[in-house]
Amino acid sequence: MHKLRVYFPELEERFRGRSPASRVAFGGLLGFAVTAPFSISLAQICVFTAVAAWLASMTKAAPLLTQKFPLWMPWLFFALFTLASAFHAPDSLNSLIKSRELTQIMIFYLAVNVIRDDREAIWLVKALLVATICIALYALGAVSLQGVLSLANRPSGFFSIYMTLGGFLLVTGLLALSYIFVPTRVRKSIWVYASVLLILSALMTTLSRSAWIGLVVGTAVVAVASGRKKVGLCLALVAVLVIFIAPHSIRQRVKSMVNPRDKTAVERIDMWKGGIKMFADKKFLGFGPGQIKDNYARYANPDAASKPPAHLHNNIIHLAAERGVFALGAWIWVWIGYFVLVSRRIRDTRDASFGTRFRMVGGLAVAAGFLSAGMFEYNFGDSEVVMLVFMAVALPFMGRESEIQQE
Q1: Would 308 disulfide with which of 75, 148, 296, 406, CB 3.0-4.6 Å?
Q2: pLDDT tier, 132 (very low <50, low <70, confident <90, very high otherwise)
Q3: Model confidence pLDDT, tens digit, residues 367-382
Q4: Single pTM value for the model
Q5: Is the CB of residue 272 less than 8 Å from the CB of residue 313?
Q6: Residue 6 has what pLDDT?
């Protein structure tokens, strides 16, 4: 504790001001932010220990009635219809096991209720950025050692696949951009600017086009929501310049995004068509969580050469085919409700402190980037990315309304 007193006196004071269970919850959430880029097992241990501690803390220090549960109704309906779909599935046992991913929703409510103010929210984001800098450097170093960047030779960091690394860097990159471009009279840490450069450079090396699309959309949201439209224009111009001086593999990947005859684009369209046929066959409850691969062959394009996919490369089509119209409707309800609530908060907090405005803009940008990338990738099924997204989109709801400060 001596080093804690010397280097982090305010953090120690905040720990002392909490109940024992609340301390574990707060520490577990910080631990999740630090370990998420390196190990999903460690991250899950940290975050679900934090969830258990938070639930335990409700008994005395923070009764249930004092907790905040924004968007609880659509999430509840989504969970109920997901479970109904799992029970209805031919392989109901495996579908029910797959449905355990519903517990990740608790990360959203954990972050909303455990983080008490802007200061703690910024600590959480900075801890995440420091950890992400490490995997960005690791990814860039791997590319340098390999010599040539190509589709067959993409960095994945400490994740199992480059797509997950791209999705993770997308979320952290948008948080870093939000931190930089939300205006304030206080000088910001120079290392955050460096983190943006490293994270976005690493994101480019993943050659993940869906993540790039999410970055463009999320950056536009940052520019508009923060009132810095000229900054958004400058970033767009910089992106164009980068494309012209980027390695050949990146330029070719960008060009393929507008090529309708691109092999992977054709494969995705075939998957979407197959998914739509699956949905038409089982509209109400779908085939069950985790059951797409086992049932896809009957609906696939006969000329398609690819093996049956585990997912359909589109959140909406995948959820429709897998869980049916009611679960999909609840999922869409969640995000429409989220954008409405956060947009109102941004409007009502224009004169608030930097921390408050950063939370609003950062959460909205991450949601927009994540959903945009999810039009071309089933990123809602990527646990490493989804857990981080649930923490990030909780930012606008953290803290107490009465504690919003004016700048």
Answers
A1: 296
A2: very high
A3: 999 999 999 999 999 9
A4: 0.93
A5: yes
A6: 44
Q: What's the rounded Cα separation, in Å, for the pair 83 and 233?
A: 45
What's the farthest any 2 CA atoms get from each other in the chain? 68
What H or E segment, with its residue span, contains residue 117?
none
Write the CB contacts of 261 (distance below 8 Å, at least 6 apart in sequence). Answer: none
Mean pLDDT check: name the lowest of 83-87, 116-120, 145-149, 237-241.
237-241
In a domain, 346, yes or no: yes
End-to-end CA distance of the chain: 34
CA 253 distance to own-chain centroid:
23
Lowest mean pLDDT across 98-107, 143-152, 282-291: 143-152
Burial 93-109 (b: 16+ CB within 10 A, else e): ebbbebbebbebbbbbb
Say if residue 231 is in the same domain as residue 181: yes
- Judgement on whether residues 166 and 55 belong to the same structural domain of the protein: no
Are 343 and 365 part of one and the same domain?
A: yes
Contact 377, 34 (CB under 8 A): no
How far is Cα 174 from Cα 166, in angstroms, rounded to an integer? 12
